Amino acid sequence: QVQLVESGGGLAQPGGSLRLSCAASGFTFSNYAMNWARQAPGKGLEWVSGIYSDSKETHYGDSVKGRFTISRDNAKNTLYLQMNNLKPEDTAVYYCNALRIGAWGQGTQVTVSS
Q: Looking at residue 37, what is its pLDDT?
């Protein structure tokens, strides 16, 4: 079955970095655009970043542009999100998703605090 499993979350200090991974299985990963989204405590879901199936285009939300980098390795069926210069407002549960097939991971918690 289709499965997306995020990892790499944790506690980071402001200005620090984390790298999230999303391992995909059960579908042809290389055929689908992928996205990262997040949900902060008490807030709605926010789209963070997206990447085309062939990595030719990437897009970012205004709140993370210039700090986060999305990438993928189709040979490893894995999506990544490199997060630099983290801010307390980046604290959220981060989800990877393949919208075309309605697949979502279970999420990984990122907490940015000193």
A: 98
- The pLDDT tens digits for 3-12 are 999 999 999 9
What's the distance, Cα to Cα, between the start and end of the chain in Å? 40
Provide the token pair at 82.
């490199």
Consecutive H or E run containing 5: strand 3-7
Q: So what's the pLDDT on residue 9? A: 97
Site of tokens 């939300």: 61
**Contact criterion met (CB below 8 Å) for 90 and 83:** yes
CA dist 89 → 14, 25, 26, 45 (Å) = 10, 31, 33, 14
Residue type, 107: G
The pair of structure tokens assigned to 4 is 């997306």
Mean pLDDT, residues 36-55: 97
Please return the burial class of 66, using the count of CB atoms within 10 Å of its CB with bins 0-12, 13-18 and 19+: exposed
Q: Using alpha carbons, select from 101, 113, 103, 80 the residue that is nearest to residue 7.
A: 80
